Amino acid sequence: xxxxxxxxxxxxxxxxxxxxxxxxxxxxxxxxxxxxxxxxxxxxxxxxxxxxxxxxxxxxxxxxxxxxxxxxxxxxxxxxxxxxxxxxxxxxxxxxxxxxxxxxxxxxxxxxxxxxxxxxxxxxxxxxxxxxxxxxxxxxxxxxxxxxxxxxxxxxxxxxxxxxxxxxxxxxxxxxxxxxxxxxxxxxxxxxxxxxxxxxxxxxxxxxxxxxxxxxxxxxxxxxxxxxxxxxxxxxxxxxxxxxxxxxxxxxxxxxxxxxxxxxxxxxxxxxxxxxxxxxxxxxxxxxxxx
Length: 291
What we know:
Layout: E1 2-6, H1 15-22, E2 29-33, H2 51-61, E3 67-69, H3 84-87, H4 92-107, E4 111-115, H5 125-146, E5 149-153, H6 161-171, E6 176-181, H7 182-187, H8 192-199, E7 203-208, E8 210-212, E9 215-217, H9 226-236, E10 241-244, H10 257-274
Parallel strand pairs: 1-2, 1-10, 2-3, 3-4, 4-5, 5-6, 6-7, 7-10
Antiparallel strand pairs: 8-9
Helix pairs in contact: 1-2, 4-5, 5-6, 6-8
């Protein structure tokens, strides 16, 4: 398996600082979080920098940029139910996500992360799933043309692996897979091994972070079964990406990224090393396969 950290950990850093710091860690890549070109909350937002420049910075650091993580969601209702298709802008979320796919292509990211997300109160589950699936299908089609795969993350009305698979199966595109967040599944009582088994070969990204009493804490020090997830992934021979999140973008008083990322780097690779033959700990930068 390959490892990366999300730039939600370091919202005040420029991309040059991100890659410069990451070059000294064992992570194989950096997941690029974007809030869009109008954002002022993320200094390292790739939408604010020429994509070719970003690619060169990553290459100099010897790092992959596996995923462009977006806030895209496809749950907005059509109102009024029938006339709204004529008078409303029902494809707005699709067009926005398609632009993110195009940006990912220019950045050299193999994946774009999106969400389902929430079923409006009073709407039948079937109607909501069909609407979201239709929109995801259009984005996946753009991904096929660009060679970028789309990963839908669990959350909202789709917190479990089974929920994700229902969407993925409904869309029916080889360009759509899962980004499974261990902390979200844990919150609804799902065991990592069960989720990994349910998603099978559609599991392309796994997201890990730890919580203690609802607040982010050092990896392995909280109640989220992140170690169990890594062990279960190793048992299946998982060759995708494990992405570490430290939520300083959303919680500004967390400890700085330098300490959090160093600690997570050491812990995550100790776990991965322990799953290998002989239990040896990984040392030095490891090669990664192209997406």
